[in-house]
Amino acid sequence: MLELYYMPGACSMIPHIALEEAGATYTRTLVDFSRGDHRKPEFLRINPNARVPALVTERGVLTENPAILGYIACRFPQAGLADTGDPYAFADMQAFQMFIATTIHITFRQISRPDYYADGEAAAAALRAKVPERSNEHFTLIERKLSDGRPWVHGGRYSLSDPYLFVFASYLKLDDRGDPALFPAIRAHGARVRARPAVQRVLEVEGLADRW
Amino acid sequence: MLELYYMPGACSMIPHIALEEAGATYTRTLVDFSRGDHRKPEFLRINPNARVPALVTERGVLTENPAILGYIACRFPQAGLADTGDPYAFADMQAFQMFIATTIHITFRQISRPDYYADGEAAAAALRAKVPERSNEHFTLIERKLSDGRPWVHGGRYSLSDPYLFVFASYLKLDDRGDPALFPAIRAHGARVRARPAVQRVLEVEGLADRW
Question: Cystine design at A185: which of A54, A146, B108, B195 (Cβ 3.0–4.6 Å)?
């Protein structure tokens, strides 16, 4: 039995969607960062790095979104969430997801956690001020990829890169994270992902259906 | 035929080692960042994100180290560089590599590229000053994992997580990146990786044999 540790609206929404798309049997455990749940010993035993998502399996705990998603795709091959039998296509999918992890995700954290990067109020202000520039650069590369009219990130077939992009592009609606108006193809893509029943169920469960 | 775009001493050393471990037939193309090669149109056609490594395959270009390494492991299964037939073990290996990508790698970049995060000299100084604290936190989690006496990152069997850790732990020798004295298990692990013929060949080719 799988158990997902998640926080509503965090990037744990991506494996949450993946589990719904897969039709998996799983349980959810809420990690409330506002109460400091992520720093409590019982969660640090699950993930010493104090982050969500963490996916508890019969074999052990998996962390890091692209790794978790690869595992879900392989565990539920009938759901067709990735080209699990094609090493090139699988790696290409993972590269897209890791690009978001190592660029956009890291950049957005400069708003919520400037203290992760540097101490002091002046540094925090400088870190936050830089976000729109970097964010727009990163999303521009993705916009270019989608601009050939493909419905999904990797072409004609939905994959786990689609909810990955959907969740991070949704954060653009928040202030100071970049300019969604620059990215029409990404916005159209987001509407397609948003329409999927699995995504709607997750937004409902995470209490975000009316504001996402 | 595979073609690796690399810069000596950069994290492209990891797939370089992987290709040597695999006994792959491949060519190497040097991207000299000091001459701005990574910003030239011919390289941006390979990787619009202007980074190494990039691995050109018959099907297209792969980027992002954990994705490239997963592909190499699957393409050369006889080399036994990963548990390619076990989705849990494969994801667990990738999670370790992605942990380094999203923590240690990002942290070290605050020294070489503070302008990536924030503008101004004061912010750059604050970004650089924070690196040892964060770096020590991240390596402490890895040190704890290795402290049960296992020879390799994932236990008794060498995998591509081993050169991954080796390369990033080697950067600790540089100034202001953390304190290698805190990590005896990681240093002993590094000596084991350094002794492998494939690693020695890569250090030789990259011109680092006498200073790495």
Answer: A146
